[in-house]
Amino acid sequence: xxxxxxxxxxxxxxxxxxxxxxxxxxxxxxxxxxxxxxxxxxxxxxxxxxxxxxxxxxxxxxxxxxxxxxxxxxxxxxxxxxxxxxxxxxxxxxxxxxxxxxxxxxxxxxxxxxxxxxxxxxxxxxxxxxxxxxxxxxxxxxxxxxxxxxxxxxxxxxxxxxxxxxxxxxxxxxxxxxxxxxxxxxxxxxxxxxxxxxxxxxxxxxxxxxxxxxxxxxxxxxxxxxxxxxxxxxxxxxxxxxxxxxxxxxxxxxxxxxxxxxxxxxxxxxxxxxxxxxxxxxxxxxxxxxxxxxxxxxxxxxxxxxxxxxxxxxxxxxxxxxxxxxxxxxxxxxxxxxxxxxxxxxxxxxxxxxxxxxxxxxxxxxxxxxxxxxxxxxxxxxxxxxxxxxxxxxxxxxxxxxxxxxxxxxxxxxxxxxxxxxxxxxxxxxxxxxxxxxxxxxxxxxxxxxxxxxxxxxxxxxxxxxxxxxxxxxxxxxxxxxxxxxxxxxxxxxxxxxxxxxxxxxxxxxxxxxxxxxxxxxxxxxxxxxxxxxxxxxxxxxxxxxxxxxxxxxxxxxxxxxxxxxxxxxxxxxxxxxxxxxxxxxxxxxxxxxxxxxxxxxxxxxxxxxxxxxxxxxxxxxxxxxxxxxxxxxxxxxxxxxxxxxxxxxxxxxxxxxxxxxxxxxxxxxxxxxxxxxxxxxxxxxxxxxxxxxxxxxxxxxxxxxxxxxxxxxxxxxxxxxxxxxxxxxxxxxxxxxxxxxxxxxxxxxxxxxxxxxxxxxxxxxxxxxxxxxxxxxxxxxxxxxxxxxxxxxxxxxxxxxxxxxxxxxxxxxxxxxxxxxxxxxxxxxxxxxxxxxxxxxxxxx
Length: 846
Known about the structure:
By secondary structure, the protein is an alpha+beta fold. The protein has 33 helices and 19 strands. The chain has three domains: 12-96 and 110-340 and 361-503, no CATH class; 538-647, no CATH class; 655-844, Jelly Rolls, CATH 2.60.120. Strands 6, 7, 8, 9, 10, 11, 12, 13, 16, 17, 18 and 19 form a twelve-stranded antiparallel sheet that branches. A five-stranded mixed sheet has the order 2-1-3-5-4. The two termini are 29 Å apart.
């Protein structure tokens, strides 16, 4: 985004100001309670309404004025926002003048938490502005946003016509709010050559949601508001997602806005119902998952007001539903017309029985057993600390304090208007939503439906509720310490608690905030370098850069990672494109090649992970055979193959690397940090005998993701060192592994120089030594593929070609499988492929 022009930045700032003003104008008309006004909730809600109103106006411009210039669309959006802001300018000024609690009375601990909070916000903006965009889903959204910029027509969404744009195929049922916002950001910067200002959309929603969380938290106390905000933005999955332009901040902000209206409005009836319905309708435009907000909003309303058959309550609920339906019915009705259902995630390729996608999702995402579904699905908020940090754990004592003091069940059944304090009512609504959502997830799992647990990010919509409950605990703990006598006791309790809390969040800042900087090797001195230069350290980007610079301009590419093709400047065929259905049905690699060429496809773009269209079709063998394809780019598992000119490559006799012919080590370790694998703690290692099964000694029902088993060429010597498998630098080889069992295995290649030092991936065109040559931290950087093994199926052959670095003189092979899975390595072979063109090797791996 640093390449964005000053004029575009100025226009974007103006858009933000106008949107905030228009949001405040609408918020000023809402029936807020005095308690909500005292806490600044109308201002926070107005700021949060701004991006939703902007997105809906962008959708309207694309739909009502198709094909018109993007400048006209942007001008109309900004003009309407300005009119709304001016129309209600007097009430806005009254809201701004409303007295609110001053910050002067905050304790030093509260100021410390504020400092940490603003540090998080600053890092989020730095991440969005100075770090390149490489996240898969975010690149897909920006690809569709670019498509809308090219067509300026809402009918181009969803992207199901591969004849236009880049050829991306995405049969999404998400409403078009986010992609319309991306389109509008492209219109403001007057081009779609790079994401640019689109990187600000998700942070905009997140930061407005943050103000909402803080304001609602202040309905309990000021300290609770600060604590809730810190817990909210400190969740790594939400923070990193917003910085990576993921969509999750939109439904989270939408749901927070709906809950704020339910707990912050004065009274019940038709008028509150209209505004609650408007906000719920806007939230329904964020994501297809938002359809769950309808029952959750009704549950929050019932929990907040009490389970009494009150005419006004029923009217409120009816008007809420009617208004929300009027606002948000169109995109879901359109989905029914196009796909046959309002919400769907089952494109035609997913429905092919031979590809076995359900098994893939269960194995790859670790939801096979009941223990895994409960631990990593229903209760992921507590078990996946790398995603949610301590937020769910901090919410538990807050929930206990609320239940202990307010006795919510009795008050819920016997509630009468005016009989409970405001903080009891809003907490009852929050706790009700928290319980109803988890109960719904548990019920869906018991019914055999894994849709709600398949994606780790779906549970982020609970984060506002979790943060409010955690904020109560933080505030109450501080108050309890302050009330202790004598003062020495108070200091003895308060100071360690605040230091522990600050240390926890500070550690998150260091680990999470520096994640991308470490990934791309970015330092303060390189912040202002072009993003393309920073991405030179990212092998996936180098693969598509090869396509952009070394292939014909009219080349058509079959991509197994179509998101990365955003940077390729070439037309693609996505692996989900229904035109590939007969290709996937082929059973012979040569006939598959002819079918692909018949579609005009010349190149294959392959990432370092496996999908069913790769390993359950002849595509993997097509890539492995040099007589059918030429490997023209390869670093790690990121590769490009040429189908049209396979060349005259010849395979040499294979070197047997099987257990027995060469020593192999089995090493088990405990992995901390979830799938990221921040820390590996060695547990047990032994020599792998020929034909021996690799499986854990104990089949524990829980914590299966935290157990990993590595099979590596080498002997047990305390460090699992890998003796040389001699190779030549800058040459092509093929690795064949015969595997059986039940596991989703990852295959790694480790390359060493003449002195036996491990080589890292290319950085800026150079191959450098790994940071920890003797350790195991570099393994994930050199994954070359994956193999899915299922009980009852014949042994599977994993085959992958690769090109060694120029400095490489030997290699090591590692096969990793996690959890209580079993695997047997039946055979391993390595063979050189000679007489190939050295062009790609010389240019791209030196």
